[in-house]
Amino acid sequence: MPKVSRKIFNIINNEIYGDELKIKKISHALNNKHPADISDIIEDLDSDSRKIFFKLTPQLVDSRVLVNLVNPYRTKTIAFFGLEHFKNSIHLLKKDELIELIEQLNVKERKTFIEMIPKRMKDIVKFLMTYPENSVGRNMSFDFILISENFSVEETLKYLKEKKEIPDSCSEIFIEDDSHRLTGLISLTRLLKSHKKKKLKDIESPDIVEIIDTDDQEVAHNLFNKYHFVRLPVVDNNNHMIGLIRSADLIDIAQEEITEDFSQLTGTSEDDEINSSLLSSCFKRLRWLSFAVINTLLSPFIISLFQDTIQQIVSLAVLMPIAGALGGNIGIQTASVIIKAFSTEAFREEQYSKVIKNETLIGIFNGLMIGLLLGVIVFFWFHVFKLSLLLCGTMVFCATWSSFVGASLPIVFYHFGYDSSLSSGPLITTITDVSGYIVFLGLAYIFLV
Fold it and tell me: What is the pTM of this model?
């Protein structure tokens, strides 16, 4: 338990202290602490100490603390206080934090919570929640200035001067035509330097990259990486600007994408957290384990077909695991490279065959290098030239085949609209393990028996 959490625990459980002294000491210990730190303390405390903490210092547990709690602690905190407790601190949350909280609530709680949100923010949250969870529209903000291209510089400056609310980080103005279609932008610096009678359409920069509100948030991530923009305008299908997405949002988006890809690569769920309930975690991981069971059953079945061969050449049993292990590792390594390339849009559809060819050639080279090394080791180990040659040939096959499978499967999945991460891990391991055993034991049956 961290030092601060241990201190709070000791204060709560010190029988000498009365409630008033405990409140005073806890408040002093947590003075100026960030809400995220208080959330960590709540998660560190045991159930009884947590309830006492809630009872003694309810004012410390506001909406900012709640949004930083992971489940099941967030649910338990809401159950203890009730949603009304957080009403007076809702205004301290950002729109994405509000949406995150709302999505964690059940239908009844969600309705109650939304009604507690201040009207202006409530309308924004409701609008954003009409977009799919991983869309650009869900992440956009409305801190932008949009002006007609027919305005003059003088009219624009007057408009900005009279406008009550101007975004703090506003460094450019977006321009629209008479049909309200986004046509370009102009920086405030250029605006100030331009002649006051000039029309905005004459001085705007038409080289603007926009993103559609229904696009996946990963598209925004790729555009930021490609163009290094600070912000991107968000438009609808008619090219009407409706929002703005900032590079600061990229941090959260990138984290979500990494979590998603890692979860699918390892066969876990995105919400399969360390604090999830035992039963929930079991069922979330069962899907991946089913692939592992298939591999576990297939591999010994293949091996059983060559029992007589293994009995005659006992050294095969010693070397056999190498054939399966190498193929799986190379396959997953290759798949990881391809999946990363997809996430950063590093290659296009017409390059698929070239990518597969290159990865296969890499597999051949690595297979030769590893095969020669293992062949020499096996020769000095067992003093059987045919056996070392057999293992060398198997390594070349396994590395080549695994590289081909590791590159091809993610591309096939991606081409047909499935997440390429789904083909990684257990599926590739199953294919490469089984084929490695078949080739190694099959060649041993043909050339050594």
Answer: 0.58
